[in-house]
Amino acid sequence: MSFAYSITEIVAAQSAHNELNSALAGAATLIACAFTLSTLDRWLRRRQPHELAWTIAMALFAVGSGALWWAESSGWNLMAFRVFFLAGAVLNVAWLALGTVYLLIGVRAGDVSRTWLVWLSGFATGVVLIAPTKSQIVSTEFPAGREIFGAAPRILAAVGSGVPAMFIIVGALWSAWRVVRKQNPAATKSLTRTVTSAKRLAGGNVLIAVGTLVLSASGTLAGRLGQDRAFAITLLCGVSILFSGFLVASNSTLSASSATKRLHPKLLQAINQ
Question: Nearest 5 degrees, angle CA 211-CA 252-CA 264?
Answer without folding.
Answer: 165
